[in-house]
Fold these 4 entries.
Entry 1:
Amino acid sequence: MSVRAYRQIQRRKSRQIRVGSVLVGGDAPISVQSMTNTPTTDVAATVEQIRSMERVGVDIARVSCPDRESALALKDIVRQVNVPIVADIHFHYKRAIEAAQSGAACLRINPGNIGSPDRVREVVQAAKDYGCSMRIGVNAGSLESDLLEKYGEPCPEAMVESALNHARILEDHDFREFKISVKASDVFLAVAAYQGLAEACDYPLHIGITEAGGLRAGTVKSSVGLGMLLWSGIGDTLRVSLSAEPAEEVLVGYDLLKTLGLRRRGVTVISCPSCARQNFDVIKTVDALEKRLAHITTPLTLSVIGCVVNGPGEARETDIGLTGGGNNTHQVYLSGLTDHRLKDADIVEHLAGLVEKKVAEIEAEKAASAPSAP
């Protein structure tokens, strides 16, 4: 079997919707989301946090709108950022209408929780009038009481039933521009719920393991759950929910997608865990390189291996490679071929310079091959 064959993931076929300028579902790339944790009424702080997400590649940002002032503040936030904004709405239908009027690209709302059919109709009409899509967000921790009574506890079947009930309300109002999530903090529950929902409908799915924990534990937990889903082709947009800065969620989300070959952004560093054979300090070098190269968005691979056991083999598969050698002198590879040697003191800046030169060449080739403007 070829390498290309076993790396291919067949994504679930879903309908496509639009969240502002970002397409979700269908053959669109899997988008990466995060959410602000600043008071939405503090426009300056919220804008700066969204910009920090933008710097690491976020596609969609979500902002909580718990009150009228927050919903109205969206108007000032939206015009100062470059990514579409999702308004996070719970229970109060007027907040959804105000958020749509203020420029939200999407409303995160459960239509069954906002009151009478008239209120649902008003929200749907506002979404249609202002070009908003919606996300139905089911959470195992806040399932409807009748479903808990029916099933006895949160379970995949209850979560799927909840999601489809909410979806039916929107369909009854001739509205289908929505995506669905069925999140849980339990990995097995979340994965089973998403698998059931993927079979039951063709709407795009927003995937996530909610309340996953801090940066390290939450990354592991999310990687297990989201990795299982993405590997099986489920997921059109994702958020890695961490008790950490929003930009960290974005970075982990991209690393997940890069690992599975579903999306590439920036420099992918292949590095060894280091051992007594290392001929330079691999851990410090890689840490410094990742920080030094954080501004790069062009996809590129860089291998940093401490000795000759695996170094040459890894270097053959990467754009740029470094293999540790004796006497503080190491081998540099370009496009898989040996190119020149390098001393310890120059490693980080030298490799960063090679990466930046390669990126400039790639971007120049892209520009030269791009069709001319009419």
Note: The first strand starts at residue 17 and ends at 19.
Entry 2:
Amino acid sequence: MWICNRYRKLAEELIKNYDINKFPKKIYLTRKNVKTRRILNEYELMEVLSKLGYEMISPEEYSLQEQFCLFYNADKIISILGSGLTNLVCSKETISVLGIMPNIRPEDTHRYITSSIGGKYFEYIENNKKNYVYQNSYNKGNDFDFYISINDFKIVLDEFERC
């Protein structure tokens, strides 16, 4: 918990020179620029999310200070679980996070971070094994991309949007 508070204080100091209001309140973090664990039907997903006001963000395209601003200003973040969510520690206590996770790679780090800062955490788990596209049969735990079942995702998204 103390590390989250320390990073939040650092973020508040680093973002003083930015117009925080130019950063979106609703963010979808994409993995389109990385090699694995990408959502293959992301275009279809964004059709749903953009209607709700979400902006697609590639964290690696922003400076560290800008990433702190993105996370600090956001009210809602949707993302595949991974390193792109590291800066959750800079978020406000009012943050709500919807983690997208394939059932072959469980993870609870981001749930812990979100609850540690006082935020709300939701999770969508893609359970359809037919939706996984493996790149390396020797490292199935990490080297894959996947489709998400949009209709199943919408059920979790509806609950997430009501919070």
Note: The chain has one domain: 2-162.
Entry 3:
Amino acid sequence: MMDDFNKTYGPFLPEPQHQPEQRQEQKPEKKPGKFKRFLSTVLAGVIGSAVTLGAVYYTDFIPSGSDQGIKAADTESISNASANLVPAATTSNGETGSIADMVEKASKAIVGIVNIQENSNPFTGNSGSVESGSGSGVVFKKAGDFAYIVTNNHVIENATKVEVSFFDGEKATAQVVGADALTDLAVIKVDAKYASQALDFADSSTLRPGDEVFAIGNPLGLDLSRTVTQGIVSAIDRSIDVSTSAGQWELDVIQTDAAINPGNSGGALINTAGQVIGINSLKISNSGVEGLGFAIPSNDVVPIVNELIEKGKVERPYLGVSLADLEEIHASYLENLPDGVKAGTMVTYVQPGFGADKAGIKQQDVIVEINGEKVENSSALRKYLYSNVEAGEKITLTFYRDGKKETADVILTGDSIVH
């Protein structure tokens, strides 16, 4: 039966790969609420979006040639790499000037980003560079000879060249400092001479529903660069399940009704003081649905971009297994599970020499708890690992093997990712 299992699941479940990653700041795991259940019922699409997230979609870069109506490095260690959080100002900007003055100043730090990829012609064998799409970014730091720009990972993913356009029409080729698919964040850098303005990050924990916000970015391509839309914070502390190139992830976001469209990805959601309180990343687009946009909170952005600049990657604890959720497994492989076990995730591969292997975890073990916390699926296990523990720590897994409940203590390693 093991051979049948390997034939069935082996080809479809990649073995763990060592990828540049980094640990997200620790946060308690949220339980799915009514809003999350609502999202799972909404099926929507964004024209030009290349990454589908089930109910929620990245406000992706604009693919070249899309029918939109409007066409369109080396890492280094730097202390205090990103802007520090500053007290959020959520009231009128009357003391320092008008909202228009604030927007005019802030817009100079918003850039356009073009994703350029190599394209091969299978018939002629010729290859060349093509513009794959465009998105937005925010200059948040000038240090020495470089200006640092935060954007979404999906804006620059798979690019062989990244080109940045500035408010004054200047263009520059950027170097990718680091990127993280799970949190959908990336940092690129350009020569500092191109950037005249950098924006501070505000403390997003002070936000309240009703606070006035502005989204600045490049909707539908660079022809509409630095478009400004106005709205409010509709809700805070939302959690949305997304599919990324690194696996499933539960992204914590700010909800806003400020208009966010394809091409806004990586742009800034700012408060009335011109401070960044979020990076625009997602929206729901469906007939009859309006004003449901989402941004990654600045308090989540800051630690990630700091580590990307300092290390070029996100370091996360590594278990050393590949996983499949129970609904993905044929019922014949679940016959020995007790009737009451309806949730969990099955081990489909154990990487030799890593923590799970050393602890005696085996293929077809069904993990149901980690450190006493119930494991609903592989995404929940990953979320707990990346949010609550670090490489080098010991965790306790509870699992079923041949119908019997067992436990094992696992010492986590680093420098890779759970699949």
Note: Helices lie at 2-9, 34-39, 99-107, 153-156, 298-311, 355-358, 378-388.
Entry 4:
Amino acid sequence: MAEQERAIRTRRTILLAAAKVFQEHGYRAATISQILAEAAVTKGALYFHFPSKEDLAQEVLLSQNRDFFVPDCVSKVQEVVDMVLLHTCRLQRDPMVQAAVRLAVDQFAHGLNRSESFVRWDSLVQERLEKAQAQDELLPRVVPAETASVLVGAYSGIQSLSQAVSDHQDLYTRVTALLRHLLPSVAVPAVLASVDMSEDRMLRLHAEMTARAQ
């Protein structure tokens, strides 16, 4: 058991080191030597867990979906907002998520499957919008698949802008501005009036998700 726990810790250490190197240098410029130096492990230990830089990057990419949990709400539009708020908080606080998002938008990350995270987010948002539509929370002309694609794409652009301008320090402000512009064309006024996109809610959601993961 102690050996298994040690292996798990080593794997986590390597992933965190890789995330830091990918975040700082991008996929193409990052090297195994840099990751080894950051993790302070042997080459054998790294290759035992990850056969290549590509495998490491792919695992970092997948990390942003792990432990992600949004509580059920009566309003499914609120759940969509909660997903956005929670991911925003993680982007500001979690180095692994920051690196995963950088890899996802890195056009020089040749050989990586960068589409999976976008497809997953699109699917999660669409699923909740379809439930919102079934509960008459959406305006009649809304097509959930189309709206999900617009929201995921717009969020990706907003976070890239925030990262370039302020290293994600103003991400919450930019994201809530995006939601205030987008939601009136999606949700019926009665639902829109009850939506909570406050910073307090964002922090509470993050605390709940972190406690659940632990």
Note: The first helix runs from residue 2 to 29.
